[in-house]
Design brief:
Blueprint (H helix, E strand, L loop, with lengths): L1 H17 L17 H14 L4 H28 L2 H24 L6
Helix pairs in contact: 1-3, 1-4, 2-3, 2-4, 3-4
Length: 113
Amino acid sequence: MARALLAVLLCSTVALGCGRSSDGRGKADLDSTGVDECDSALAAMAACAGKLPAEARGSHEAALRIARDVLEARAEADDEALEGEAKAEARAALKAACRQMSDAAADRAACSL
């Protein structure tokens, strides 16, 4: 349940960011989350930002930075708190959530222009 909530939270954060105005900044600078699937999802969403209207880019990029921070924090918390199979299951769930985010980003109209 918590993993599903994480996926919904992250997708909502990015979706909300797409509807707000921009401050004119360039592409979001995103560090690694420590999870390749999450980094790929964020990169796909960052690439989508270039296809958005200028007034929506800044908030989209801000939402990406928030999503990156949440994903990194989740991965670090799982690594610190869990061991063995529980840790592997948590990482697999996080990877699945990130793949789902990547698929959702690809389905957005702005990304397919």
